[in-house]
Amino acid sequence: MGKYIQFQFLRHDSLLHRMDALSKLIFVVLISFAVYFFQDVRQLVFMPLILFSLALFAGKIDWKVILCSFSVFLAFGFFVGVFQLISNASAGEIIFSAGFIRVSDVAFYKAQIFLLRLFTIGCAALVYLWTTNPKYFAIGLIYLGIPYRFGYAILVALRFLPLIQTEIGKIKDAHLVRGLASEKGIKGAIENWRRYLFPVLANGLRKSETTSIAMDSRAFGLYKKRTYVEEFQWSKTGLALVASMLIIILVLGWTWGFGFIQPRYS
Q: Which of 73, 184, 241, 242 has the fewest CB atoms lying closer than 10 Å?
């Protein structure tokens, strides 16, 4: 399963890949804001289904990659939901009780809301990450007026994320060659990360130093403005994606209503 979990740009020739970076960023921001004003579970269930369909059909992402990567945020959402069950156990009417475990209707409602909110935002971010070249993302930010030094700092950070994932794979292979297999279970996972942490940090610092020397040797940051081989341009398909999502949000809100940022139970 681990090999299908991807948190980096996946190069494909698809409709989503050909859209401009800023339109897709606005698309993610719209979804992130919308889920905080949705208080009906049906609204929040509908959003990940849209994202899954977009990634599969418009982004040409392997369905195994989508499911495995989405499941990471589902796990995070599950822990947030459990916290809501515990913290709101005394509110509302009890709908389930077993020993010291008590689940109220308010707690169950809030657990669903927070789980689906986190899950949806994480899925939207993944779809953007898979289908957007970091270079075009940085150019888009600079087009908005953000200083190019800050834009390139984000670009370098995004470039380093897949390198870290690759480094972990190399360290794991090196351990296997030396007869040191990965351990299983929670205790094994902690032990594995203890083994990986120092080599990953050491390699990361070495690459950071090399990158900084290369940038200094090319006089990066000397001038206030820079020229680019490829200038940013809005795409019609990207703007259509934003308009479509805005319509979907309004329809969902009109059908099941909008609420406040903090969920209420009624």
A: 184
Kindly state the helix (H) or strand (E) to which residue 136 belongs, with its residue range.
helix 134-143
Joined tokens for residue 187: 């205790």
- Distance separating alpha carbons of residues 28 and 12, to the nearest angstrom: 20
Provide the 8-state DSSP code for 102.
Answer: E
Alpha-helical runs (H) found in 3-104: 15-18, 21-37, 41-53, 63-87
Separation of alpha carbons 84 and 145, rounded Å? 40
Distance CA 78, CA 81 (A): 5
Reading the block at residue 248, the tokens are: 């979907």
List for the chain the helix, strand, coil content (%; round to 5): 70, 5, 25
d(CA 127, CA 234): 19
Rounded Cα distance, 202 and 207, in Å: 9
Residue 207 corresponds to which tokens in the numbers above? 């690459």
Assess whether pLDDT exceeds 70 at residue 12.
yes
